[in-house]
Amino acid sequence: MRARATPYLFLLPYLLLFGVFGLLPIVLGGWLSLHQWDFQLPNKPFVGLDNYQELFTPDSLVYGDWWESVRATAVFTVASVPLLVALPLGMALLLNRSFPGRTFFRAVYFAPYVLGVAVIGLLWRFLLDANLGLVNHLFGIGTPWLTGTPWAWVSLVGVTVWWTCGFNAVIYLAGLQDIPRELYEAATVDGATAWERFRHVTLPGLRPVLLFVITTTILASANMFGQSYLITQGAPGNETRTVVSYMVELGLARNDAGRAAAMSVTLALLLALVSAANFRIFRYREE
Amino acid sequence: MSTRRHFLALGLGAAGATALGLAGCGDDDDSAGTAAGNGGKDYTGPKVTLNLWNGFTGGDGDIFKKLVDTFNGEHANIAVTVATYRWEDYYAKLPGAVTSGNGPDVAVMHMDMLATFAARKVIAPVDDVATALGLSENDFAPTVWKGGLYKDKRYGIPLDMHPVGLYYNKALFQRAGLDPAKPPQDRAEMEAALAALKGAGIQGFWISPFQFTGGMTAYSLVYQFGGALYNADATKATFNSDAAVEAVSWLRKLVTDGHSPADVGQDADYLALKAGQNAFNVNGIWQVNDLKKSPEVQWGVAPVPQIGSKRAVWANSHNFAIVQQKRTDANKVAGAKVFINWLSQHSLDWAAGGQVPARRSVLEDPKFIALTEAKALSAELPDAAFPPATPGIGDVTNLFYTAFNEAILGKKPPKQALDDGVAKADKLLEDNRKKYGD
Predict the structure, then answer these.
(1) Does residue B93 sit in the same domain as residue B131?
(2) With contacts defined as CB-CB under 8 Å, which chain A residues touch B272?
(3) Quick one: fold of A43-286?
(4) Which of A172, A208, B55, B91 is the most core-located residue (most Cβ within 10 A)?
(5) B306: CB partners within 8 A, 6+ apart
(6) Enclosing domain of residue B136
(7) Min Cα–Cα distance to chain A from B395, Å
(8) pLDDT one-digit tens code per residue, B105-122
(9) How far apart, in whole angstroms, are the C-alpha atoms of residue B269 and residue B21?
């Protein structure tokens, strides 16, 4: 009896945490999305699927803003994910070789990641200011890094890559160190070039790590909020206001939690689809 | 800076409310608070302790605390304790705290928040304070006084008002051959000054595309050109009127004519003024204390010049409100009213914190006249254009600021940007009416 309970007892602490901080909020979010829910008003009428329907009804209050924010999130994700997957891989390959000062460089590339979004946000807002910023001053140009598209996207993607690529690099590095040395030695003996070793030893060896990095990076990019909130403030107009940014504004600033929850559920479903596709592609390659 | 923050405030309020339980806010009777005491003339009951919350985190907080200490010394049976939070945290905590019965007794609140909190039943009417003390419109600037009303009931007793003013860099004035003692006060003077500055190679009036400060400048000009953001009962947005289009176009033209660089970033306009690159910045009275910290900057401040057909400025105001309690303690309410009345009469000392007192008698006091900057901006009191007392109006006004952003950045022509903004604003106003059950 006791033996049978043991595994469940080991799982219990996490189950509790997951239940309280994971499952419960998800269920509550679904519940909220079916209501017109303002925390501070006494009546919170049930509205069925109205909050969802609005997202697809062109003349509704939120339709324009919602799709503009979906577009912003899509642009950011499509632009940032390839960079955040490829660049750290290159960095990890370099940092995996032995050369003097290796530990120093590993720390340097990881360093920005330890800074909070408020710090990097303010920092880059001042550096990229079109008229007073150091960047334009150094190059003697007047690029509107923060207030004009596509420059605002270049800024947001660039800052995010600078900020977070160290994290992905560390994960790649761990993956690289798990690939057995003998495989490389065998490949070298068989006369494989550096590229062939990368293509046929390193990449297959990294497949699970790659899947992890791609999935988490897509999710992180699709949830981007702080950068656009602090650096561009959504400008010009609301062009760089992401879905999460819009949801925060709606749910917390306007106390319109019902609509925000409906958007949140919709975004989660979209991301679940993307992740499922992602896993499919990787499994297909394995077969 | 304090004012910038409070626009986010309600937002975080939601988070606070979740933490404290989702129970609906009390449906207490509106009149719960109004029966107590004689409206603040005096208080003779048993000793009461009052909690007061405010958001005065700057130098103004110390001045406020000193005033409260004086009050406590003079009143043996009333003890006021003060808790200070940053405005956004403060507005965030308030509704949840009130719901759970841990709220303060007295709250300091911005005027444009009164209607929203009144509709949410967080604060109680204070009409009897006004009547018992014989306070009326005549004691205050009418615009400030009317701003405290929501649905014909008074929810706020004004303490001060903080308008925007025209800050200018005197060193740049001299470089362009202008008289630093004579800032422009109408459209012709303004345009002449800008031409002179341009002649000296200076972009004189940086227009930021964000609410702080370009949006507030545009807000002021819409009213100056005879327009308004909303119709009289705030059921329709009117910031695409000819007057509003003219106002925003005038500002956009400053950019296209080279009086302002394009793509001014957040705060860059003000920093450039301090750095001697920008001659004019329409900014809040709260910047006076910040500029005083930089003695190397030669600056002055004057009322916003009249660009349109009349004078008008963006402004906000700090008000006292009495918090709706789950169980009303008549003695506490009576004590709170005595405190509000006392502090309102002592608002001259408050003016030293960098605000324009709301009371007329204080405005004419020689000691106030000695406060140069606040005195200069107090001339704007009758021209203050406050937003209407409608719940949730701040969210709608943000749509005006977004439209302005698009127009100044040249994403859309002013007329189209404002038309698009109004279309959205009308939908939001209708949605708010349904939500707040108006």
Answers:
(1) yes
(2) 131-132
(3) MetI-like fold (1.10.3720)
(4) B91
(5) B185, B186, B187, B224
(6) 2-159+317-345
(7) 7
(8) 999 999 988 998 998 889
(9) 43
